[in-house]
Amino acid sequence: MTTTSLTFPRLFPRPKGYAGIWSWIGTVDHKRIGTLYGVTAFIWFLVGGIEALLMRIQLAKAENTFVDPETFNQLFTMHGTTMVFLVIMPLSAAFFNWLIPLQIGARDVAFPRLNAMSFWVFLAGSLIINASWITGNAPNGGWFGYAPYSGVTFNPGMGMTYWIVGLNILGVASIAAGLNFIVTILNMRAPGMSMFKMPVFTWMTLVTSILLVLAMPILAVAGIQLQTDRVYGTNFFNSLGGGDPVMWQHIFWLFGHPEVYILILPAMGIVSEVLPTFSRKPLFGYPFVVFAGVVIGFMGWFVWSHHMFTVGLGPAANSAFAISTMLIGVPTGIKIFNWIGTMWRGNIRLNTAMLFSISFVAMFTIGGLSGVMHAAPTADAQQQDTYFVVAHFHYVLVGGSLLGIFSGIYYWWPKFTGWYLNEKLGIANWALMFIGFNLQFAPLHWVGLDGMPRRIYTYAENMGWEGTNLAASIGGFILGFGVLVFMVNVLVSRMQRKVAPADPWDGRTLEWATSSPPPPHDFDEIPQVEYRDDFWFKKYPETIAEYYGHGDDDPAVPSGAQLDEAVDEESVPVISGGAYGAEATESEHGHGKIHLPDQSYYPFILSIGLAIFGIAFLTDGLVLFAGAPFFIWGLLGWSMEPVNDPEPETP
Amino acid sequence: MHRVSKPSISLRPTLLLLAPIALALLAACTPDNAQSTFGTAGPIAEDQANLFKFIFWIAVVVFVLVEGAIIYASIRYRQRSDSDKRPHQTHGNTRLEITWTIIPAIILIAVAVPTLSQIWGQQNGVPTDQGEVVGVEAIGHQWWFEFRYPDNEIITANELHIPVNRPVAFKLNSQDVIHSFWVPKIAGKVDMVPLNDNFIWMIGTEPGVFYGQCAEFCGIAHAHMRFRVIVDTEEDYQAWLKGMHTAPDAPTPGSPEASGQQLFAVNCSSCHTNNSTAPGSYAQEISTQQARWNGWLEDTENASIVSAPNLTHFGDRLTLGAGLKDLNHDSLVGWITEPSSVKIGTRMQQHAAVYDTPDGRAKLSASEISDIATYLLSLKPGTGAAAEPVDDGGAGTAIDAEAVFITNCATCHSTGADKVVGPGLAGIGERASGRVDGMSADEYIEQSIREPGEFIVPTYPAVMVSWSKLGDDTIDALVTYLKTLK
Asked: Is-above-0.80 flag for pTM?
């Protein structure tokens, strides 16, 4: 095989092998990157959780002085920022990374090195934001950074600068990851897997990725404008200079509402995998669930001003956004009903993963219903910026996203690791989180309607808010204890090491077709897909007629002709990373002959450069020159590096 | 097929699904709480609560059906023993899909109709057929509320008086960051956006005191940015309006009040106005407030002047520190001694010269602080007649120098011969011409306003600050006015 003529001089040898820290730094394996995302996000989850518990201690009683108001403001700013950007998004990304290639029968994502870069850039951004705690400048303007309070006149410290710089770096990671998964899902599906044979998790990942690519640049624009307001004296949002603080809100929420769906759609995808498996039935109304997800992703762009019903946009705007917000309840309802339809007449195994998924449906329903309550702008005038809203979105993001993610963790853990999580501890984990969560957030509906505003570090004794706040604080600690039990479970299960087979749950989708954990190349043979839930129907061909029997009803039923076309050998993507046409063949079993993209340090090096650029905005512009060599080195090295080094000639 | 054995668990935890609804139903049970959105005292809040309840009960029905179905399915269809049964692999049911698409859509239309009608009823201008409308401008400051009554030329802070059963139309604005104006029992909130007028109207239907609170995060003292709305009977309201133009009785010489008055003038009055009872002082207070704001903006760290609540008739107030504490002598002494220990973040301690001490506490003796508190608590409408509105005879924008004097100077200077903090100014026009060689009376008086430190009359403390901020035209008018004092 001929080698590429142009190579960039290497300072380090290209990493090889699958052991040692350098193999992780150089990895381009989607599974390892998924693990990196998961572990990092879980650490930030603990940080964000501790921030929440500190706030709950402060609010447990009236006139408490456990933390001072400035610290409290930093805590809620960092809790929101952390949980949204450093926990739920990257935990979702961990699932995308782990599962998308497995679910679509591919050997990696479309751009493995870009994928690695996404993680390292995410890590850099998350470290920069949290470094603010160490330098004593934690952001204090809220995760929503409303102008003009986020401006330099009212907020002269460095905190909001950390926030902006961190978010903009995270945005780079998210956009790159979004693009990567769009391309992966559209181009790298196993032969025969038409769009409507994709698992729903893959569908939701596709929708989420499109939202990421469209929404994150909006945040980047807002962030850069705010940054120039702060540093260079522009007046985009600075009301003192004639800027418009309301414009910040429009731009932020134009990003912020799609962001809500970025946070919830992956969990919806997880639940749409778990419920069918443990009900031993296919997902009820697959095309409707998929369309509902797509419609939610689309309509999510037309509801941003419901975050701004009290900003004074006037009756016309408020009416329009009230209607669009209520409309989005319809596709959400469709999903919920279909999940229940999936369980109906099933053979339901109530294990930990399933309990988390059922809880997701139950709790997300509550969040949806309270959402309709503040879709009415005049009713919302009483609820906006109170704990009622806090309760609402925690029912969506904890009761929804987080329970869904935990369901996914228990469901796919055997696939990720090759061993089971302990089921008894799992049930305890679920019960504590479920009870703690409800004890924490149900009373907050009440105290919100009782007039308690958000983001107040303390409240007076005579307001009647003490009992509910105490209950919420106790609930918070029970929830936290539940998370602790999860960590214990991981350790205990690791010691017990109950080995899981390839298909421990009698699964339905392709990831269960390969070993647990999967080999680096995922599949020895790229699967040929004929059906939705292809793996199940190949296992139980006698049930094919049950599902596909009423062909007229189902728009996605494949005809034989389509099948034949899809299995056309010429279009089979064998190996990711541009190695089509290499001598590797499907018939070769074992790792040796399957070409995977080689590992690379350059994404990591480029990310170091980007991180130093970020630090320059926080310290001195000259620091840019320290970052430039890394950035340019990473960029050039990466672009000139061949996907695979030439193999030594075999004699 | 590899299978793990089914864990056996009790289904009772699923009953906990009912806990949130039980708690939510209890929510309506605390209407007496000060900021409950249910025990309403005005039609706006009442309609909002009713709309909420309408949606809430629909939601309860949906909730019971959906959660019931989840629980039923979880129990009824759970795996029994180790049954390996494969249920019928159904793909769905189009008729059901259409049903559960259309039914929620119909429900949401049922919610949307009253919602839209309420939006247009509440947000499309104040009704003109429900009594004479009171106009109020509410301005958010970090971290207190200013209330202006342009029709009555009244400015007050943190306690809003409105007449019962009359619509009150508010123009909302903010001086600094975004705040939100919210009186839960009377009306839902509308944000106060800097340089961007917002609008809200409300009617209070029950006389009494109601709680308000800033709802938009606005900085370090956000939690302590509260206010009270006092819904007065029409009679009380008219008396209050009159009182706001009636000057307090002058303190008896030698009393703690008199001592407090002097101390207030020296230490507090460059930020706090406390005597805007006179006609014409309204416009002055507005420009003074702006000047104080500009003073802070020029140097947010070290400004010597910051915008501060108007303290006129402070003795009539119920609370201290923007709804933070009950107002009494003890709480006021505590506040004056060390305001930041009562309300963290307040700008008073950081900026006022009197707190420029190593420990940040006021450099005043305990008895001096007590005197200031006594004086402030004595500020109530006096026994004199209310000031009549000034008829400016169509002079339009002519500067009312007397009003300028009352607002800015009268705290320390009388127009007679008696000494307050500074000298009485009767006859100043004659005295001034001989004071400094080569200076005319006009030049001397102007210098005394702009650079008072240049020449201090013996026996008087050098405490006066420069008043150049009043502007050239105003100072010219003031000089002319002062020369007329006999």
From this structure: yes
